[in-house]
Amino acid sequence: MVKNKVLILGAKGMLGQELVRVFQKDKKYAVFGWDRDEIDITDRKESARKISELKPKIILNAAAYNAVDKCEEDESELKKALAINGKAPGYLATIAKKIDAIFVHYSSDYVFGKKMPEIIEPEGCTHICATCALHKDFIPEIGFREEDEPAPVNKYGKTKLAGEKAVRKAGGKYYLIRLSKLFGAPAKAKTAKRSFFDVMLEIGKKNKTVKVVDEETSCFTYAPDLAKKTKEIIEAKKDFGIYHIVNSDPCTWYEAVEELYMQAKLKKVKIEPVSGSEFARPAQRPYFSVLINTKLNPLRSYKKALAEYLKK
Ligand SMILES: NC(=O)c1ccc[n+]([C@@H]2O[C@H](COP(=O)([O-])OP(=O)(O)OC[C@H]3O[C@@H](n4cnc5c(N)ncnc54)[C@H](OP(=O)(O)O)[C@@H]3O)[C@@H](O)[C@H]2O)c1
Q1: Which strand (E) or helix (H) includes residue 59?
Q2: Distance from the CA of 5 to the center of ligand 1, in angstroms?
Q3: CATH hierarchy code of domain 4-311
Q4: Which of 37, 164, 258, 269 has the fewest CB atoms nearer than 10 Å to its CB?
Q5: pTM assigned to the model
């Protein structure tokens, strides 16, 4: 059997390692997982040579610069972020187009946040009266849709938006997938960050009271769920373009910790909701950045995914 070659970039990252796992399970694919030791995606020539030699049918780019605060206040870090997040995705999309490969690139809810999303009214509503019958049983889904205009609030978000624009400009057979608040098994990468839930579990085991920011409403994304969904959209030959893939049930950090401690049986820990200003950070975060998926069946609630993660 001739196997389809799949190249996964950022293979040691939190998402990359799950993409490797999901594709390796399927005998149809020959999987190549590359990280920094194998390729520097900011080197356009080297990337073109190495990828053209391999000639994969599918390229998944999970490589990224994710140090949101560092690149907000340090010019040299911002340069790195722009090279990795802003420019490299365009090089990769161009290479993919040349070798006629499908290109998957991952972006972030942080491309939004400067403006609140538009609230969709029920069809026919003229906004004249607050008790309009059309609103009966109509619960609007509030959030950013795939084609909404991005407007980031911090420099990291701007670098991710630059990457999106570079991919769209290159054209070709691309899927641009936005996600938010990724969690899953810790990555093997050198710069790997532990996910929020792992950090909060440790804090909850050591403290009687824990302060948590009750803001930044958005959706969690469980890395194994996103990896599976990525494979599904490729295999289902979905239209190329932008997709929002996140787990259901948007929440603030505080609400997520309530759920975490309940599931982890840390019920005695007092969780105190606080405003973002109590934890001053260099980069502003979007107050609200819920991504709405209008193109795919929704993923399960993050609560179910979290239960699976904690069991593992
Ligand atoms: N984590 C989140 O909460 C979150 C939220 C929204 C969107 N996203 C997006 O989701 C995607 C996956 O994120 P993740 O959290 O899985 O990332 P991650 O764990 O930080 O992994 C990124 C990987 O890319 C590698 N890499 C960085 N620069 C590279 C370069 N120039 N050449 C080759 N490899 C390079 C890193 O290696 P080093 O460790 O050596 O740098 C690391 O192994 C990214 O596009 C990210 O922006 C993530």
Answers
A1: strand 58-61
A2: 22
A3: 3.40.50.720
A4: 37
A5: 0.95
